[in-house]
UniProtKB/TrEMBL annotation:
It catalyses: 1-(4-methoxyphenyl)-N-methyl-N-[(3-methyloxetan-3-yl)methyl]methanamine + H2O = 2-{[(4-methoxybenzyl)(methyl)amino]methyl}-2-methylpropane-1,3-diol; cis-stilbene oxide + H2O = (1R,2R)-hydrobenzoin. This is Epoxide hydrolase. SUPFAM superfamilies: alpha/beta-Hydrolases (SSF53474). It comes from Glossina austeni. The lineage of its organism: Eukaryota, Metazoa, Ecdysozoa, Arthropoda, Hexapoda. GO terms for biological process: epoxide metabolic process. Keywords: Aromatic hydrocarbons catabolism, Endoplasmic reticulum, Hydrolase, Membrane, Transmembrane, Transmembrane helix.
Length: 432
């Protein structure tokens, strides 16, 4: 039978077990769980905390000694092992190219530090942009001006709010356990209310897609519409449809979209190759955090490798990982610097451990229907795709569903104009 055949049988068996347990013996949709909307997640006792609701500017200037210390670290000999012969990015970040990245980081990028970038526009509709890991607010730098500047092509201009997720960048991480996507959804919703936006749009990918969907499920009265470049559905029948589509693809998607949906053995192999980081971060986040903290070269390799194969899996066959085919080194290093100067790699990856915790699973948010208007855009090289049939199990008001034959996981950073147009096409279908 072989390994692939065994894997298929295991997947089918597990899928059947999940369906029997969760579908035939449980309600398809659940009411939204009741969460504490004012829970204190900071250090120490809640009794000693007094909330400050003032909205004020925040200085993100990096101290000069931090930059000088980074330069000194990048001056040290790397002593990296040579890659195997005839290996590009197949084994991870190629050490030859890593030397080039470090040289550019040290001798060109940091010479021009800092490089502030700003975008301004007329406010019409509030829009919350949510990033993921290992991205940051830097992913949205190129799309923000498109959203905030008036265009002759449409009547929409947005007030864009782009927060670092809790534990990422300049946003304080939780000091207590059980802070997963549901709790992040509460924090993001409270932030928008504090800014005076009782109703708003959401766009996000990666963690932003999960948190955005949770916000739409928990607070539909606040959400005008939800748009994502990584929509997903984990309902029991959605799993069954993944299996069934392997044997009867024509029942689930058009032939022109077949390249978006990999055969089960290929999908399994791809997921195994690209999600090793997830298992580490979901089980031992502080260990990998300790390895990467105060280690700029290791941090860069760990983060930038994802911008290679998550943009295009074929880039692993290139000696430079194809990193500068879609991005500039400046943009990539901007993203690394956000993690480095804020010392947020450990607090960022803890979100994985909390998301896979028992307390988060008991909320069963994936079984809470999303009734707000939803738009889903698929970029071909995303890690995984779902059919409309699967998505409609959770997103009951799917009004916009599109496919793009290029692009990958970091759509806002890689193809900002295309993502912007898709988002605008979605907004045009809403009653705003």
């Amino acid at each position: 039978m072989g390994f692939a055949g065994s894997v298929i049988i295991v997947i089918i068996s597990l899928g059947a077990a999940v369906i029997i347990k969760n579908y035939f013996f449980a309600a398809k949709h659940l009411p939204a769980p009741k969460l504490d909307l004012n829970k204190y997640w900071g250090p120490g006792s809640n009794a000693l905390y007094k909330e400050n609701t003032m909205v004020k500017s925040y200085d993100i200037t990096v101290k000069s000694e931090v930059i000088e210390d980074l330069k000194a670290q990048l001056q040290r000999p790397l002593q990296l092992p040579e890659p195997l012969e005839d290996v590009d990015f197949e084994y991870g970040f190629n050490s030859y190219y890593l030397e080039n990245v470090v040289k550019y980081w040290r001798d060109e990028y940091l010479v021009n530090w800092p490089k502030p970038q700003r975008a301004e526009g007329k406010t019409v509709v509030p829009l919350l942009l949510l990033h993921g890991w290992p991205g940051s607010v830097r992913e949205f730098y190129e799309i923000i001006p498109l959203l905030t500047e008036p265009s002759d092509q449409n009547n929409y201009v947005f007030e864009v709010i782009v927060p670092s997720l809790p534990g990422y960048g300049w946003s304080q991480g939780s000091s207590k356990k059980d802070f997963g996507s549901a709790q992040a959804a509460v924090v993001m919703r409270n932030l928008m209310l504090r800014l005076g936006h009782k109703k708003f749009l959401i766009q996000g990918g990666d963690w932003g897609s999960i948190i955005g969907a949770d916000m739409a499920a928990l607070f539909p009265h606040n959400i005008i519409g939800y748009h994502s470049n990584m929509c997903g559905s984990m309902g029991s029948t959605a799993i069954l449809k993944t299996i069934a589509a392997y044997f009867m693809p024509s029942l689930f998607y058009d032939k022109e979209h077949s390249k978006f949906f990999k055969p089960l053995p290929e999908l399994f192999s791809h997921q195994m190759a690209e999600t090793g980081y997830l298992h580490i971060q979901a089980t031992k986040p502080d260990t990998i955090g300790a390895a990467l903290t105060s280690n700029p070269v290791g941090l860069a390799a760990y983060i930038l490798e994802k911008f290679s194969t998550w943009t295009n899996p074929q880039y692993k066959h290139l000696p430079d990982g194809g990193l500068t085919r879609r991005y500039t080194l400046d943009a990539l290093l901007d993203n690394v610097m956000i993690y480095y100067v804020t010392n947020s790699i450990t607090t960022s990856v803890r979100l994985y451990a909390e998301q896979f915790s028992q307390s988060q699973g008991q909320l069963q948010l994936h079984r809470v229907a999303v009734t707000v208007p939803t738009g889903c855009v698929r970029f071909q090289n995303e890690l995984m795709h779902f059919t409309d049939s699967q998505l409609k199990e959770r997103f009951l008001n799917l009004v916009h569903s599109t496919y793009h034959n290029h692009g990958g996981h970091f759509a806002a950073m890689e193809l900002p104009k295309i993502l912007y147009k898709d988002f605008i096409d979605f907004v045009k279908k809403l009653d705003i």
